[in-house]
Design goal:
It comes from Marivirga lumbricoides. It contains one helix and 24 strands. A hairpin with an 8-residue loop joins strand 19 and strand 20. It is globular and about 50 Å long.
């Protein structure tokens, strides 16, 4: 009789452990199914403001996202500590400059983002560049510009990283005159401790229109990005492309009405464990079971 009792005890212990682990991750929110749901309503996704780029740390215990109120963006943060999640607070903000599109480096020691901050941190706003802060104890360093090998006198938007440290981002540096909305997606490889010259992705990804807000899978097996195209469902839709055996990107597919609306979908992110797909839709952050992505493969 002792053997079955031990089995029951073990199963109960495992279930309790899994339950506790789930409560620790992802702001202790109930996991979504295959239909997108607003993430953390009234806590993260609030009325009367806009929420944009969001990213969790690899262990799911730190959460970074951006809000926009009155036309100025700042980065907010919540962390699981002392058996509970802290209330989200602003960690990178300024009275004049905006900070948006947070994304962690592969090792989690740098927080990248975009900003219209001037190079010296004083004076008028400029075009958007990619910046980062180093983790320093429980906080972050002052903003550091990634430099002219990445940034131009035009706008650079939204960052994500492959496992090898390569940076994917978008820029309108090569837009035709008078067509500043024409963003393209680029890749800058990480070699010899620095980013190499960015290379624009193929025509299967980029067009003479808007392609931005790119998320790359850590193994570079797929890309998700926002694009404004004539056959789209709204002002900006999310598209997905998979890498073929020969290393080329497939023609991007619209992710359809389950994800896209008549509004603007952007800021895609898939958690490190591959379980959840986050994105912004109509100024709120949504999440959905990431197995949804397999339908497009």
């Amino acid at each position: 009789m002792k053997f079955p009792i031990l089995i029951i005890f073990y199963v109960c212990f495992i279930n309790i452990s899994l339950s506790q682990h789930t409560k620790k991750q992802y702001l202790a929110q109930k996991p979504p199914g295959l239909k997108p749901e607003i993430f953390a309503p009234h806590l993260v996704s609030k009325d009367n403001r806009s929420e944009f780029g969001s990213v969790f740390s690899a262990d799911g215990l730190e959460f970074f996202y951006a809000i926009d109120e009155g036309g100025k963006a700042e980065i907010h943060y919540s962390v699981y500590e002392k058996d509970e999640w802290t209330a989200p607070t602003a960690i990178i903000s300024h009275p004049v400059y905006s900070f948006n599109d947070p994304f962690l480096s592969v090792d989690g020691q740098k927080l990248f983002y975009i900003s219209d901050r001037s190079i010296d941190g004083s004076g008028n706003k400029k075009d958007y560049d990619i910046w980062y802060s180093n983790r320093e104890g429980d906080g972050w360093s002052e903003p550091i510009n990634t430099g002219s090998h990445i940034n131009t006198t035009f706008n650079e938007y939204y960052i994500s990283f492959a496992e090898d440290g390569s940076m994917y981002f978008s820029s309108n540096a090569q837009a035709d005159k008078g067509k500043n909305h024409d963003f393209d997606i680029y890749k800058a490889e990480w070699k010899e401790s620095e980013f190499q010259k960015p290379v624009k992705l193929s025509d299967y990804i980029n067009t003479k229109a808007y392609e931005a807000d790119v998320f790359v899978a850590p193994d570079e097996s797929y890309l998700i990005f926002s694009a404004a195209r004539k056959k789209g469902l709204g002002r900006g839709d999310l598209y997905i492309s998979f890498k073929s055996a020969n290393g080329e990107w497939s023609k991007a597919s619209n992710m359809g009405p389950l994800v896209n609306t008549e509004g603007h979908e952007l800021c895609p992110f898939v958690t490190k464990d591959g379980k959840y797909f986050f994105f912004t839709s109509n100024q709120d952050i949504y999440w959905v079971d990431a197995s949804l992505l397999e339908a497009f493969r």
